[in-house]
């Protein structure tokens, strides 16, 4: 496949993802990487009651596969960037941790998501007294963020959606300050997905078909000159969705071989690394 074909295929993937997440934003919930019961699912993957209570209504859309803010060690005054910020879930949690002297920037390529998260800012400010969050429209392969301006970069079940993951990791290295930290929660493959699942648009929007083996991600991180790379695998209870009727999840589930579950194929992984100081 030549470069022009690669670009065309990549744009098709972006359009599919953008359309899928636009629908999720308009419905106010989704099962991408998560659950149709967002509060229950968030607690199951490590978010505490106190964090969830401070969120504006609708920020938690059940789109997570980990809790990157828990491993980021955020401190007051830091500048944090969230790739694929969705409804603002992790941004609002991070904003409380960095406090009034800090700043949290969320980037999402779906206009409906950016609009939704921006509407939640006044509610968050009223609840917490903080006004330290902003949301920008943009692609994670081409971040609308200045070079060496970010202390900590987080992302929650988003990089697997990108058709150009090496470029995403290069962008991460570009925007981090020297010594800056990246904390990513994402899905990785345990074994190759069945072809019927991998080619389904629903599987792509559901964060499944874009997942790759852990070692492939590690190679990209090293190629981007990130250091002190660590990974932590944990079971991903995606099967909490077995009884849900969300069209994305139902279509994926129905394409699996008899007796198989999605958790047989994917695992949740936390990736952490630093940019050389």
Task: Describe it.
- The chain has 277 residues and is an alpha/beta fold.
- The chain has helices at residues 3-27, 38-44, 49-53, 68-72, 89-98, 111-128, 165-175, 195-198, 201-205, 214-223, 247-254, and strands at 79-83, 103-108, 133-137, 150-156, 176-189, 226-234, 266-275.
- The chain has a seven-stranded mixed β-sheet with strand order 3-2-1-4-5-7-6, sandwiched between helices.
- Helix 7 (165-175) links the parallel strand 4 (150-156) and strand 5 (176-189).
- The N and C termini lie far apart (38 Å).
- Mean pLDDT is 80; it is low at 29-35 and 201-205.
Reading side by side through the largest sheet, how are the strands ordered?
3-2-1-4-5-7-6
Span between termini: 38 Å
Mean pLDDT: 80
State the secondary-structure class. alpha/beta
Shape: globular
Radius of gyration: 17 Å
Please report the number of helical segments.
11
Query: Could you give me the name of the CATH homologous superfamily?
Result: Vaccinia Virus protein VP39
Strand percentage lies at 15-25%
Order of helices and strands: HHHHEHEHEEHEHHHEHE
Share of helix, binned: 25-40%
What CATH architecture would you give? 3-Layer(aba) Sandwich
Number of beta strands: 7
**Total count of domains:** 1
Assigned CATH class: Alpha Beta
Biggest sheet architecture: 7 strands, mixed
Provide the low-confidence segments as ranges: 29-35, 201-205
Say what the CATH topology is. Rossmann fold
